[in-house]
Design a protein that fits this description.
With 379 residues, the chain is mostly helical. The protein contains 21 helices and two strands. Strand 1 (65-67) and strand 2 form a beta hairpin.
Length: 379
């Protein structure tokens, strides 16, 4: 190619630029801004934002293109096929997440498991809504699982059902996970009074033995496998990561899973998801509907958890701060931080973090079980 041809190709690329692609650049820039300026889950939003710009450049070599009748495979599409389409990235990420989670708050107060179950209400509410709007049952189920507030579970279920909306589902799941600090606080405050938000909860000494901590991931995997066989891969990898943490003889592997593995896979997931953020795929009425339904799922997850806590307070002598119910979603540890922060805003001596973390890690288990049940019902 001579210099003239090179200049002509540049002008040709500029001529091929569409306003929709510029809009996606703006969306990508917004995600990068939120990651850097607002420190909102930067490990997710920054690669997603940069990836959105990358795939919306004219004739971008990062995604698969047809040139002169020949298909040129883009590296981001290659990563998608190698790591997301076969569920490899989500399952590897679950090992890292499992290694991060300390189940001691749940084991010392098993009642917190109830909040993890209650906060899955948004999944089934959104399933009904998506069906009523006109999505077929498998696409509706794939969309509803956004309410699991768990990106790997959303990917796993949408892939299993071979949903044609998998790109929008993945983007919605990870975007709303990162936006939990924006989505949850107004819902929590709307559903609770200041008096309820001021409720303090005592800390009890856990007394959880090392043997119990080791047996817990094994027993949970076995029970879940019997109740919901199709969730065995998800719950198994999550609990394997936790077993690495608790066994006491693989500390170096546990640390690697928590830091190196989890960060690397999250980075790859973030930029790989961008393969489904092209202007043609993203700026679509159906995609916008899915994003809206995903928001509904997150809101009603929060509603289900808070209202369940308020219901328990009607029959309990020791009152529960109903904000704890909101932490029952699977977005770990974002949701627990949100509840703790609101508690401190209302009373700077009201430390809810351990209780919120207990509900939050319960949500991790509950979301995987919910995903398995969806697969069992509609698979």
């Amino acid at each position: 190619m001579n210099f003239t041809d090179f200049i002509q190709s540049i002008f040709g690329n500029v001529a091929n630029l569409k306003i929709e692609q510029v809009i996606m650049w703006i969306i990508g820039g917004l995600l990068i801004f939120l990651a850097i300026k607002k420190d909102m889950e930067p490990t997710l939003l920054l690669p997603m934002g940069f990836g959105a710009i990358l795939v919306n450049l004219p004739m971008s070599g990062a995604i698969t293109q047809i040139h002169e009748g020949l298909e040129e495979i883009g590296v981001i599409d290659l990563l998608f096929d190698s790591g997301i389409a076969n569920e490899l990235f989500p399952l590897l990420l679950f090992i890292g997440i499992g290694a991060m989670i300390d189940f001691e708050p749940v084991l010392s107060n098993p009642k917190l498991m109830l909040f993890g179950a209650a906060a899955q209400f948004g999944i089934f509410f959104t399933l009904s809504m998506a069906t009523l709007i006109g999505f077929d049952i498998k696409d509706a189920a794939s969309i509803a699982i956004i309410g699991a507030a768990d990106g790997p579970t959303s990917i796993f279920v949408a892939n299993f059902f071979e949903s044609k909306y998998i790109g929008a589902i993945i983007v919605a799941a990870y975007s709303y996970m990162a936006l939990v600090p924006i989505v949850q606080p107004p819902v929590i405050k709307l559903l609770t009074t200041r008096k309820e938000r001021l409720i303090r909860m005592d800390y009890a000494k856990s007394g959880v033995s090392k043997v119990t901590k080791i047996l817990f991931p094994i027993i949970v995997t076995m029970i879940t496998g019997i109740v919901s066989p199709r969730s065995v891969a998800l719950i198994g990898f999550l609990m394997f990561g936790n077993l690495l943490r608790e066994c006491g003889v693989l500390d170096s592997l546990s640390e690697t899973a928590q830091k190196v593995l989890a960060n690397l896979i999250t980075l790859l997931l973030g930029i790989t998801v961008a393969s489904k953020m092209t202007a043609e795929a993203f700026l679509d009425v159906t995609t916008l509907m899915i994003l809206g339904l995903g928001l509904v799922a997150f809101i009603f997850d929060t509603v289900g958890g808070v209202l369940f806590a308020k219901l328990l307070n009607l029959f309990s002598k020791k009152k529960i701060n109903p904000m704890i119910g909101a932490a029952g979603i699977s977005a770990f540890p974002m949701s627990a931080r949100v509840v703790h922060k609101i508690g401190l805003q209302e009373d700077n001596q009201n430390f809810l973090l351990m209780h919120a973390v207990g509900a939050n890690v319960s949500g991790q288990i509950a979301s995987v079980v919910a995903g398995g049940l969806i697969l069992n019902f509609f698979g």
